[in-house]
Design brief:
Layout: H1 6-9, H2 16-61, H3 67-94, H4 119-142, H5 149-171, H6 197-215, H7 241-258, H8 269-305, H9 312-327, H10 335-358, H11 367-385, H12 388-394, H13 403-408, H14 415-444, H15 452-457, H16 459-463, H17 476-488, H18 503-508
Helix pairs in contact: 2-3, 2-4, 2-7, 3-4, 3-5, 4-5, 4-6, 5-6, 5-14, 6-11, 6-14, 7-9, 8-9, 8-10, 9-10, 9-11, 10-11, 11-14
């Protein structure tokens, strides 16, 4: 029965029994196809809902005077990402991929023309669009409070329509030069980035790093009004910790569409096994990274000041760092390894956050340490911890596994680690080469940064017709009228009447 081929068997059914069996096969196939479409619809919707998480996190992290601006940018990320990925992005990312012919970029399927008629192809675009929009949103928080709206629209479309799709084609399409899905993958295995630590998060994070460096810090962050360097960088307090926490939880929930959904199917036992593993490793990594970040920061602060303080920002960004760090290897590492990956992800976040301050690069929401720093770590971690059985299930039995496992086998073959390092260097190089001149050009044309006075008053008032919150309260005149009215108000309280004497009392008298 292991050699039984339903397609061959059903080419010419021998009798009614065979015809019935073939009809059952056809029905099962259609049901499985529909189930896979629904699974991607559900997972893609969860990934898209992460836009709400980014919006809440960014809005809570910045000052009140810029809330409208950052919320509108998050909305337009989704709009720009949809239009850019529909018109050219998806064609560049997957069009014309051939596992026997490696190319630099896709070249067919523009505007979803030619062949996008069935559910599997259409839902594939929807799922990948949600990822593209995520890559663009990463940049929004970094350049918040000082970036011009026009510039944001320009780089959002450029990122989702060209820069990100080229990275996708090179690593995720079957025709990419780093792809694990081609017939001749580099190093015998190709780069393993299951859900996008490198493809999505590093791409967005590297773009944010270039943008922040060219854009410059917010007024008062590292220098005073006279341009003198501050003894300590000034930290702008978030205007709503509640929104930050809400955004963090929304993103965490959305990651269960991001990572498990990257199986792209659920109808087979194999895809179910991989998806379940992704959910478990994603949870453990996020939890261990949050604990790692907050307690490491607590220890560092206590050594410095002698006081014990617990920073909720460390817990939130630590959890997000763990989620980014496990994204590449969620399908190929054991649960114990996801704990280690999360532990290191928390430390990686603290390191990158401190490094940016030393380099005087202003990241309003610490998106660069979370997405770029831990995107790198997530890709490298695969080259260290990818387990043999897990790799065989998620990819193929190519015999190239995590370096620690290869040493345990007596080999020491670092092919997978080498592929991961090459992928990291490729993403950094590609994004830097394209986005650096792009941002410099915007800056030279005066299209990148808002005027200093507009920045001081806030982008909500200077660009969006007023503040996000109406906290003006009643006018003094109305309050004064109310006080006068209140003072003139008289309450008529009935006086107590003497009690009538009873007949018994009168007789006694």
């Amino acid at each position: 029965m292991s050699d039984f081929d339903p397609e061959t068997y059903c080419e010419a059914p021998a009798d009614e029994t065979a015809a019935g069996i073939c009809a059952a096969f056809a029905y099962t196939g259609e049901t499985n196809a529909g189930l896979d479409v629904f699974y991607l619809l559900f997972a893609g919707a969860m990934v898209f809902f992460m836009q709400a998480g980014f919006a809440m996190l960014c809005a809570g992290s910045i000052r009140q005077k810029n809330v409208k601006n950052i919320m509108l940018k998050n909305i337009l990320d989704a709009c720009g990402g949809a239009l850019g990925f529909w018109s050219v992005g998806y064609a560049f990312a997957y069009g014309g991929a051939d596992p026997d012919n490696k190319k630099f970029i896709g070249n067919s399927g523009f505007f979803l023309a030619n062949g996008f008629t069935d559910g599997s192809s259409l839902i594939g675009w929807f799922f990948q669009f949600a990822f593209a929009a995520t890559a663009a949103t990463i940049v929004a928080g970094t350049v918040a409070e000082r970036c011009k709206f026009e510039a944001y629209l320009c780089y959002s479309l450029t990122l989702t329509g060209f820069v990100y799709p080229v990275v996708v084609y090179s690593i995720w399409s079957s025709g990419g030069f780093l792809s694990a899905f081609s017939n001749d993958p580099p190093f015998g295995c190709g780069m393993h980035d299951f859900a996008g630590s490198g493809v999505v998060h590093m791409t967005g994070g590297m773009t944010a790093l270039v943008a922040a460096k060219i854009l410059g810090p917010r007024i008062g962050r590292f220098y005073d009004a006279d341009g003198n360097e501050l003894p300590e960088p000034h930290k702008f307090a978030p205007h709503s910790v509640a929104l930050q926490v809400l955004g963090t939880f929304i993103l965490w929930v959305g990651w269960y569409g991001f990572n498990p959904g990257s199986t792209l199917a659920i109808s087979s036992k194999a895809s179910g096994d991989v998806s379940a593993l992704c959910a478990v490793t994603t949870t453990i990594a996020a939890a261990s990274a949050a604990v790692s970040a907050i307690f490491t920061d607590m220890i560092m602060y206590r050594r410095k000041s002698g006081e014990t303080m617990y920073d909720i920002t460390m817990a939130m960004n630590g959890a997000l760092s763990g989620l980014v760090g496990i994204t590449a290897g969620c399908s190929v590492v054991e649960p114990w390894a996801s704990f280690v990956i999360g532990l290191v992800a928390g430390w990686t976040y603290i390191f990158w956050s401190s490094l940016l301050e030393k380099l005087k690069i202003d990241d309003a929401v610490d998106a660069i340490p979370v997405h770029f720093g831990n995107g790198i770590w997530g890709c490298i971690a695969v080259g260290l911890f990818a387990a043999p059985g897990r790799v065989d299930n998620a990819y193929s039995a190519h015999g190239k596994y995590g370096w620690f496992y290869m040493w345990g086998m007596g080999s020491g073959d670092g092919s997978l680690l080498a592929a991961q390092i090459c992928g990291v260097l490729w993403i950094i190089g590609w994004v830097t080469v394209i986005m650096t001149p792009f941002f410099y050009l915007l800056n030279m044309l005066g299209l990148f940064r808002v005027d200093s006075l507009e920045e001081e008053v806030g982008l909500d008032i200077s660009h969006h017709k007023g503040a996000a919150y109406d906290i003006s309260g009643p006018s003094e005149e109305v309050v004064e009228k109310y006080e006068i009215s209140r003072s003139q108000r008289k309450l008529d309280v009935p006086k107590d009447e003497p009690a009538a004497e009873t007949p018994a009392a009168e007789e006694t008298a």
